[in-house]
Structures are given as structure tokens and as C-alpha cells.
Records
---
Amino acid sequence: MTDSGMPEAAASERSRHYQRARQDRGAETRQRLIAAALDIFGRQGFEAASTREIARSAGANLAAIVYHFGSKEGLHLAVAEHVTGEIGRRIGVTIGDALHALSQGNPDKIMARRLLQQITEAHLEAMLSTRDAENWARFVVREQMEPSPVLDVIVGFMAPVHAVLRRLVGILTDSDPDSDETGLRVFTLIGQMQIFRVAQPLVLRIMGRDEIGPADRHSIMRVINANIDRIVGVTAEAAKS
């Protein structure tokens, strides 16, 4: 390399560093906007939420929303994808294990019960021990109360999970996984876990707790497993053996 080329190389390296730093700052701003929007959309709903308030809460300017998401609707969609992605990361392994077992043919009842327990435990852990779970739940519940186009994202995430649970419960109860009865059983299984997230203040007040700690989570899971045992007729203890 000639001496005359060295300043150009140095300038090129500085440019690359600048571009990387700019990209990092852009990604950080995007994440701050999603976090702020998750909180505000969940508390106020899509229509009432102000993009100006979201930008201010994120420490960004209003133009950053347009730059990163195109519009308020685009930001709303990004939040829904963020929520389902985060939940998926926490329960995805157990769903994958179940899908693999089901792809090999219907597992026996002991294996099906074990897979069901793994999914429910992962789901409960995600809902109760993850710091952001309260905001996820608030956003999802808001979408049930005031459905918007992003409900399709939530349904698109939950429908395959529900289908896996239906197949496992169908095996355990000798019932058609596509029947209404099996579908309702699955919703009751999900509901008994969700209550400890979406109605947690009520649970804490009535149970005389300040928080749901590790010992409480263990007790909740024990009771949920006992309820599932009664529904499906195969005990969690048998599945462990």
C-alpha cells in the first residue's frame, strides 16, 4: 500500500465505524420505541395512544416512528410481533419437542402427558417470572377488548400452539382433537394459567401476598398439574416415571 493510500484507508475505516455506530443507535432507538409503545398501547389502546407521547417516553423524536415503522399502524404491528416473538422464544422449545413427537406418530399417553406438562410449565414460567410479562399480558388483553388488525398476529401465534395442545389433550382423553369439547378443554387449561398474570393484583390481595415468588409459582404449578390430571386422566407423576 502506498503512503497516499493510507489516508483513504483510514477514512474508509472511520466511515465503517460511523455506519456501525449509526446502525446500533438506530436499532436501540427502535427497541426503545417498541418498549414505550408496548406500555402505552397496552394502557390506553391503539386509538387513544399518542405517537407524540410514545416518542417522548422513548426519548426519541416523532420522525423516528415514521423512519423505523412507517406509521402508527406499523409501530402497533411491530409491538404485536415483538410480544409474540418474546413469548415464542420462551415456550418454543417445548412446542418444538411436542411437534417432533407428534410428527413421529401419536405418542403414548405417558409421553403426551409429559409433553403437556413441559409446555404448561414453560408457559407459566414465562408469564410469572419474566419482567416484561405484565406489559405483554396487558397488550394482549387490550386486543381482546378492543380488537384491531394486529389481533391477527396474536391469533397467528396462538393458533398453532392451541393445535398442538389439542392433539395432546385428544390423545390423553381419547377424543377427537378437532372437536369443540377438546378445544374448550384446551382453553380451560390456558385460562387457569393466565389468571395468575392478567388478574395478579386480585390474586395477591385475596391470597394476602405482596408478590408471586418462586415458592408460589411452584405451588401454582402443582395445583395446575392436579387440575390437568383430573381433566386428562393421566397424572403428572406417572408421566415422570
Note: The chain has a mean pLDDT of 89.
---
Amino acid sequence: MLGDCLLNAEPGAPTTVRFAEKSPLWIAIEVETVGCHGAYPHKSPSAIRIAAALIEDLAEIERMHVALPPAVSRALTQGAAEIDRIHLSGAAANMGRVTLNIGTWNGGSLVNMLPGRCTIEVDIRLPWGLHSRDVIATVEAIVARHPAARMRVLSSQEPAWSDPDHPMVRLIRRNAREVCGLEVRPIPSLAGTDARLWRQRRIAAFTYGTTATNVAMADEHTDIAEWMGVIKIQALSSLDYLMGDTRT
């Protein structure tokens, strides 16, 4: 049995309700050469130096044109200040473009050996309005410039979004205003949440949670008083939605 709306409680901030998230595209690239002793670099290209050049070339994908859906573009524009307040300056700009992270780098065995193998794993985040196949094709073209390199896709997802003016969003905004005096902005999310699994089934999905402080860092925590307010807003919004309350 499937419902028609998901309200997810993963962290975010009580001043925002997340209606979308960027999708990860993970790619492994392996560079292989003959390799040799470090005193004889004329005998073989260095796999690590090729990988380093390839990483520089991969930065081109961050300049790919993105035609954001109008509703997403409006939400980003209207929520930009709050996005940067929560996630620090530059977050709003990154939401609307392709970003690149070199997550792992493995190569070489000894300081005096010229490496014959190097592997990198690439984490690319896709915004809405861009298909993974287009990014994969661009990466393939970049890798093809380096004959010693080959790539494989580890994981691929398509960016999806729900209507930022959905009734659930309006209920959360109303209840946050009435219960806690908060003005809530509908915005996308940089990181992934389980809400993506519902959107993949074309079910409207939204994330509303407490502030994520120091995520994946020392002293990760949340504020208890803030969390209690979030719980009240979640409960009231869920009840209102089930009762068919459309007041805003």
C-alpha cells in the first residue's frame, strides 16, 4: 500500500521544508600504466600524474549548463539567504549547479617507485533539470582524452522534486508560524535523504526536521527545545493533511 504524501523527519532546519535534493552520481576511474622504478621516469608514464591531470579536467562538469525547472528556480531565489545562513555562504549557488568531489584516491606503493596504477572515486551531485546520462557522457569524453584511463559508473540516480506549493508545504508553513512564530521557506536540500525513495515512485515527499549542527563532525547535536517545536509542527501538519484541512 502506498500513500500520497511523505513527511520525513530527517534533519534540516525548522525554518525550511525540503521539497527536493540533489542526486549523487558516483564514478570510479582507474589509470593503469607499465610503472617502473622512480629513477627511470622515461620508461613509463606515471598513473598518479595522469590521474591528477584527469581530476583537473573533470572540473569542466561544474560548468555544465543547467536549466532549472521554474518552480525550483523560484524557490532557490526566494530562499537563497536562508540557505546560506544555514549551510554557509555559497550553498544556494551550489544547489543550482553540478558539483564535483574526489572522494577517494589510491595509488603508488613506495616513494621510490613510479606508480603504474591509480584509482579515484568521484562524487558528482546533479541538480534538477539535468539527466545523469548527459553528465556521464561528458565524463566519458573527458576520460577518453587519457588513453591509460577507464571508468565505470558505481551508482546513478535522477534528481527529482516535489511541488514546493504542495498542501503539505502550506500546512507546515502555517503551523510553524502559529506554533513557533517561524517563517518557513520551501527549499531543496544539498544532501540526500530517504525522501528520494518516495519521489522515485512519484509520491510527494518533504523533509522537515531540526537543525543539523556539526553533521558528520565532532559534537554533532540538536537543540531539544527546537526539536520539541518541530515535533508539534510535524504532528499538527500530518493531522491537518489527513483531515483535509486546506487553510493557509
Note: The CA atoms of residues 111 and 175 lie 61 Å apart.
---
Amino acid sequence: MKSFAEERQNRVLAELRDHGRVEVTELAAQLSVSEDTVRRDLKRLAEAGYLQKTHGGAVALDAAHLPWSTRADVRTAAKSAIGKTAASLITPGQSLFLDAGSTVLSVARQLTARPLTIMTNSLDIAALFTADDTITLSLTGGDWNPDSRHLTGPTALHTITTRRADWAVLGACATHPQAGITSTTPQDAQLKTQMSHSALRTMVVADRTKQNTIAPHLVLSPTEVDVLVTDDEHAATQWQEIGVEVLLTATAN
């Protein structure tokens, strides 16, 4: 027989599956328990790897469908470690496509090589370099998506087709060593694919929550990935076995 704690925690997980995030005050009211009890449940579930605690609540670790403001708070230490490792591969004088996403934003924040030429469809990434005269910065243009805070659509896609770069640095909604890199929307998939095809090399940055998962829209086949940067040791081995260069970071939050 399940304990009351197990039943509560299962209900919390059900709320996360349905809504992507939960709030302590709302859960306390729904479950007829104190907020301290809910916080203890969230702590245990976070330790078990089911969720990421946030101020006042928690979010599901499978965060591809969440708004940008929520995704940006998920596994920040892991993303920072991945970003630092990925940024170390970039050398002075190179040109980059930087995809829109919270992990790629972590890469952008830790780029130390100068000068660089950067094209991005992310206003958050572009804002990092507006006062840096050692960066030649371009935006793709296109239609503004307020939920994911990036530019998309035919204009963005056309712009990318006319440019070339040394690296495409891409985030991922899902990665799988057989299915490849996949995305939750066709528009996002098209932009990522074109960035990769317009670059000499493609680097995918994805933490363990994205590994061995599949989204509906294909971005790249497994063999089209040149470098994968992740904190998932098991996934690292799987990708190395198919010939992809993998950089493994320390596991964090």
C-alpha cells in the first residue's frame, strides 16, 4: 500500500505532466497539507531527478514545451558547465550561427575568443554583444515568437541560406543516437537544419534531460552532428559509439 507521501508526490508529478510547472501555494491547497510539507515533497522529487525546484514551486525537467522564462531557470548550473566547455572550442576569427535557446545562451555568455562573427535568431543572445566592437553581429530577421523569444519564419530561414559559418551551435528539444536531433515545431527544426547545412561543423549542446528522447520534427540525423556537449555519461558513450565527438561535462543540478 502506498504511503500518504507517495500518493501526494504522485499527484505532484501528475500536475507536472499536465501543466509543466507547479506552485507551492496551489499544491498545498489542492492536497490539504501545509506549504512546508509540499516543499519537502518537492525536495525529494528534485533529488530523485523528476523536477527542478524554482522560487515558489517547481518545473518539469522535460522543459522543451515550457515558456522561455521558465526554461531559463531549469538546470542552470548544468547549462553553464556545458556552455563553458562548448565555448572553449571557438577560436579567434571564427564565424558562428547561434541558435535560440537557454543552453546556447549559456555558450554565448562564455565566449572569450575575439574577434568573432555571429549570426543569431535570438534577441537575448544579440543583446550580449551590442556594445562589443570585436563582434560582428547579425540578426536573421523574421517573425518574433514571444513565447520562445526568437525570430522565425521564411525571412529568417532565407537569411541563413545566404550565409556561411565555421560553426553552427544548436540547442535541442530532443536527442537520440538513432533518431538524431529533433524539435517540437517544424519552424524551429527548419532553422536549426539550415544553420547546420550552412556551417562547416555542427555542435549540439544538450543536457541530460534532452538525451534519449524524441520530438516530432527531424533536425539532423545522428551522423550529421560533429560535436555533442552534454553532462550525460551514458548518452556520451552511445554517441561516441556512432562516431560523434563528445565532450562530457560534470553533472550539475
Note: The domain at 76-248 is CATH 3.40.50.1360 (Rossmann fold).
